[in-house]
Amino acid sequence: MAIEVRVPTILRNYTGGAKIVEGAGDTLSGLIDDLDAKHNGIKGRLITAEGGLHRFVNIYVNDEDVRFLGALEAKLNDGDSITILPAVAGGALGFAAAAALLGR
Amino acid sequence: MCLATLGATKYFGNVNGVLTIDSSIVRAIVAHARRDHPDEACGVVAGPLGTDVPARHIPMDNAARSMTFYEFDSMEHLRVWREMDDNDEEPVVIYHSHTATEAYPSRTDVSFAGEPNAHYLLVSTREPDSDEIRSFRIVDGVVTEEEVNIVDATVKS
Fold first, then answer.
1. What total number of domains does chain B contain?
2. Rounded to a whole number, what is the distance in Å from the CA of B44 to chain A's nearest CA?
3. B66 touches chain A (CB under 8 A)
4. Which residue range is the domain that position B99 belongs to?
5. Which residues form the MPN domain (chain B) (predicted)?
6. Does B116 lie at the interface with A, CB-CB under 8 angstroms?
7. CA B107 – CA B123 distance, rounded (Å)
8. CB contact at 8 A, B56 and B48
9. Hey, is the C-beta of A61 within 8 angstroms of any chain B C-beta?
10. What secondary structure letter does DSSP report for A51?
């Protein structure tokens, strides 16, 4: 099952500079495991040590934010297009408070 | 301290720690920051891929609507990034305002900075009568300040 994954600049050091890679999986979690097997280390940039989606990235399935599709359990189909974008956030607030506010 | 200077017109494009940006775009960014004050304002200036020239100002919603935090709305973020992709553009400048503190990246800003090729422009609106505008590169958690070279489009050719 081929799923197109668009990789942001900051993660292209894991993909040999490739902007678009292919992966496979029935769920986002499965896809990320497959990507990590091909592009060693990329999983650690997407998923926290606790096993949740990293707060620093947004992941989209086609036109939807995966957080509205069940996050890591989001179901994927052949031909889906995944986009990974680094979250754009920040501000004067302290980091711990910001993370708590984001609830991620 | 304000590092923004009126630059010589020959500097078109950015090399070695300079953000060269049109005065009309700077004015639009400051106006956006003043309009949203005391909440933080945020946005992007897109430019043609590989040129490092900020050309198209895109004010973004601060989904957090906060005085101390900003976050792009995730759907607007996707839409704007796709639009840039379709236009062969990239985010040359990512800007936001600090409304009660200096225009210097906070720890939160550094933690989130995920566009290594972007100029991170900060505007402080804490003083009602003067604007503090500073620009930084943030790569792998390292903040490097750069000069802001404001040019006038009417004499740029």
1. 1
2. 10
3. yes
4. 43-155
5. 19-142
6. yes
7. 16
8. no
9. no
10. S
Search chain B and give the residue with CA nearest A95.
B108
Q: What's the sign of the alpha-carbon dihedral A15, A16, A18, A22?
A: negative
pLDDT tens for each residue of B80-124: 999 999 999 999 999 999 999 999 999 999 999 999 899 999 999
pLDDT in tens, chain B (157 residues): 444 544 444 444 444 589 999 999 999 999 999 999 999 999 999 999 999 999 999 999 999 999 999 999 999 999 999 999 999 999 999 999 999 999 999 999 999 999 989 999 999 999 999 999 999 999 989 999 999 999 997 544 4
**CATH (domain of B69):** 3.40.140.10
B18, part of any domain = no
Q: Has residue B27 been placed in a domain?
A: no
Residue A40 burial (CB < 10 Å; 0-12/13-18/19+)?
exposed
Q: Provide mean pLDDT across the span A37-43.
A: 97
Total domain count for chain A?
A: 1
| Tokens standing for residue A76 | 């994927």
Query: Is B68 close to A91, i.e. CB distance below 8 A?
Result: yes
**Which of B42, B75, B108 has its CB closest to that of A98?**
B108
CATH of the domain at A59: 3.10.20.30
